[in-house]
Design brief:
The complex is a heterodimer. Chain A is an alpha/beta fold. Chain A is built from six helices and five strands. Chain B is of the alpha+beta class. Helix content of chain B is 44%, strand content 24%. In chain B, a hairpin with a 5-residue loop joins β4 and β5. In chain B, α7 packs across α9. Chain B is elongated, with a radius of gyration of 33 Å. Classes of the chains: A alpha/beta, B alpha+beta.
Amino acid sequence: MFAVFSGVGFASRGESGKGMPFSGRPQDRTGAKITGQRVLVIDDESLVADTVADILNRHGYQAVAVYTGKEALEQARHACPDIVLCDVIMPEVSGVEAAIALHQLCPAARIILFSGQAGSAALLERARAQGHDFEMLAKPVHPRDLLHRLAPKQ
Amino acid sequence: MPKRHSNPESKAANKALLRERELLHLAAIVESSDDAIIGKDLEGSITSWNKGAERLYGYTAAEVIGTPISILSPPERPDEVPLIMQKLRRGERVDHFQTERIAKDGRRFPISLTISPVYDGSGTIIGASTIARDISLQKAAEEAVRRSEKLAVTGRLAATIAHEINNPLEAVTNLIYLAAAELSPDSPARAYLEAADAELARVVEIARQTLGFHRDSAAPCVIVLSQLLEDVLMLYERKLHSRRIIVERRYDVPGEITGMPGEIRQVMANLISNAFDAMPGGGKLCLHVYPGRDGDRRRGVRVSIADEGTGIPGAVRARLFEPFFTTKQDVGTGLGLWIARGILQKHHGSIRVYSSIRPPRTGTVFSLFFPSAAADSRTTAA
């Protein structure tokens, strides 16, 4: 039902950006020049992964959604992402383990752990203790805040 | 000791003497026992009544011997004693039967009974013996355990809900965003979706505050009390309007302290909620954050939460911070203020209540003190 959302580009609609909540960056091709960063979105909840990837794609990123840590590593082996958005709690390979593996594979990638659980702070501390400088984003995050967080720091 | 014990008559006399001593010994044990030990005949009339029974029920032996044992039973359980007697006549024992009894002064208390049939020399049942124990304390302890378990379960439930709810909330937030982006800015549907987005943001905030509080970060961090109070008020926005409660804020300082945000939020939510309940017809809720000192002249931040309700009478005020003490019939555990005091103590602060029940100026003020971060060397700032 939501196959249409998976990573395909949208026709631009020329938003006016008049200060309404959904006014984002221009969605035409110049957006791709501004960012164009590769984002790997990993979440076992396919709806979350797909919608996040779609939102990012609308705003000039090149986002791909995968649903397991395994798939994420396969993608990363093809081409290293610039940013990784990784859910913490996942079956089989846990989010943190996947993140650590990705970090080793792609050391230049910015890795953000995405979590629906308030107690994930402890996991972050442990990863940091192992020398992995991951960031944390608490679910649910509004697209506006996500974009703000991902924007390149000038 | 008799010298001639080979004589069968003196043997019988010795036996009788020993038997008598044995009976007196047993009687003394019964009499001095702390437990209430009551004897009754097959008709249910009391035949013996030890000191323990006098202490438990308040009746002296002289007052009750010969009267029916049913005088001790609650009137709404008329069948209890006859049923017990039936069992006993069949030679069955009643073991640790929990019920209620009524003392001489009319006081009702929970009790545990063990009732055994009594036989004569030929094996015929002639009555019953009851050992009764007051189990009020035991019952209270069981209730306390049940309540704390309930709290623990609620906490675990909240954790589960918080976890489960965040993914769908994320998905719906994203879907609304994407749907709205498909529409032109002046389409009415877009306006609806924007309204939906705002309402959803409220749901997210409520979930964050009410379900996330139990999972504080591991270390204390900086809290701005005025901001925290505003967060809590936001939760009660609708209720404020419908109850016609006006909030007066006096934030003399932002109120920066160090502590566990979830716990402080819990305290404030509890106090603000109590203030609402105190003003069912509406009124003014006054929140004041100001610098101050405690009894030991330590510097810190004071927060006062004041309502214009009917006030709390002195007798109730004295017990307000007791665990399980509540004046609300069905709602609440009676633990809120006890927990609040514990949290304040944990933060090296204090909480006090002041109240007036005399019109025209009735109301209650809860006054909290938090030592300021600099003064508190035990915790580390984030």
